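Input.
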Amino acid sequence: MWGALLGATTGAGLLLVLARLRVVRRPQLAARVLPYVRDLPQGVGPGAARSTGAGTEPVAVAVFGPVLRSLARSIERVLGGSASVRRRLHRAGLDRTVHEFRIEQVQWGLVAFAVAAAWGLLRTLGDPGAVVSSALVCALAFVAGVLGRDHHLSEQVHTRERRILAEFPTVAELLALAVAAGESPVGALDRVVSRSGGELSADLARVLAEVRTGEPVGAAFDTLAASSGLPLVSRFAQGIATAVERGTPLADVLHAQAADVREAGRRELIESAARREVLMMVPVVFLVLPVTILFAFWPGVVGLDLTTP
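Output.
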């Protein structure tokens, strides 16, 4: 009986493995269709947004969804500024809606509230009269968590924009070289996007997708100029749009803009060094100078000790 049971279990396991291998080896629909629609903008229309967002919610949102959404709506009514949040989400390159960002703020606030509540519970066990102050600390922790997520979003925007500024001269030079070699603006854009990676390349890939779906090149770059929070990138997009519409030499425009970005970065580095001149003197005054004085005078002090009767 035991042998028959073990044999049946082994056979059933092998059948399950073979059935799963057949399913795994079968090409998925996304793998067959994705190479043909890769350049199309994602999330066009409400149906696409629902299909792409389905199944990607965190566990906490799936379980406590109604409560979190209610708190998110309350935070939206209190804080407001949905236009600013939407603009910063776009500048940070985050594929989220304002409501999803408010839910993240609630989650950050609840985590801070839980940490403060645990600390307040331990404090209350030793001092029962500290209940009111612990409750106040918990409320302040929730507010700090909510505002901390907003501050983190601003930091994400600044980090991404610094990366874009670091990538911009190289991308502009590559575009200029491709155009000077005889490529059309769209062909040069396709060549640079396919051979580079980064935040600016992702923005240019979206521009290329819009152009391939029928939007004029000038209008697509005007959209990039309007949505970008960096003046240099806005001037870059406006310059390309103007060059395409009026037929001006595009390679010269791109070379000039790359040189302007490098010069701006050099000026910013010099200004940063001038602002931090006092801080740069701290290691010299408090570290290098005392060591130098010690090496200069210590042999003399030892010699005096040795010769003193």
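The CA atoms of residues 17 and 298 lie 79 Å apart.
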